[in-house]
Amino acid sequence: MIARRSLLAGGAGLLLAGCDRIVQIPAARKILFAGEEMQRGLQRALVDRAALAPEYTVAQMSPVFRSNGTRDPGTPEYGAMVANRFADWRLGIGGLVATPLSLSLADLRALPNRRQITRHDCVEGWSAIGQWTGPMLGNVLKAAGVSERARYIVFTCADLYGGQPYYESIDLIDAFHPQTILAWALNGRPLDVAHGAPVRLRVERQLGYKHAKYLMRIDAVASLTGIGKGKGGYWEDNVDYDWYAGI
What we know:
Residues 85-220 form the Oxidoreductase molybdopterin-binding domain. Pfam families: Oxidored_molyb. InterPro entries: OxRdtase_Mopterin-bd_dom, OxRdtase_Mopterin-bd_sf. This is Molybdopterin-binding protein. By secondary structure, the chain is α+β, with helices and mostly antiparallel strands. The protein has a single domain, classed as Sulfite Oxidase, Chain A, domain 2 (Alpha-Beta Complex). It is 20% helix and 28% strand. It has helices at residues 26-32, 36-46, 76-83, 105-110, 137-144, 172-175, 234-239, and strands spanning 8-10, 13-15, 91-95, 101-103, 113-121, 127-135, 152-161, 164-171, 180-183, 185-186, 189-190, 200-203, 215-221. A five-stranded mixed beta sheet has the order 4-3-13-7-8. A four-stranded antiparallel beta sheet has the order 5-6-10-11. A two-stranded antiparallel ribbon has the order 1-2.
């Protein structure tokens, strides 16, 4: 996932950490972020949205799965959740749903879980292969009863930027993809803080910056208007990353 840190204004422009360093290279930026409408229309039309991302064997897993992006939200509220091992954490499921849900970590672990070994691809150019465990997002959304009016799923997180929670979104095709899961474990162990504890999104047909960490809310919405600046995600709104980052 993209390094989710505050943007630092400098004389030559934006100085970003982690994956965001690539946006300092004009040619690379032009290739990677060639325009949201073209990307949405052309790439989504050309790729098989139902196709599975490659899965790997245990022997192919990376010896180290580096943490990236926010490594600790650092707020008192999040610190309290860590201190009590997320016993009081709840994931809210709302918006355009028939039955809003409030799920504990135990609730998610008790659901049918999918285990998948997949590759995380960052726009910076590095990749890592790890094993993720968690329930399929589609099954959670089905339990909530997503309205026919919904077109997008919005994720709200515990880390803050400018005093506001980090956010990201995907469409319903990716939301109901079988490899899109609410991961609570990496390589057979519960997520640590650096990797997004207690739960992070894994949307395996998308680049790493779409994989929101530290999930707090999931909402079904009809439009991205009114979500941040309207482009569907923090980095899309503030650094012009493409909303659709399919691979």
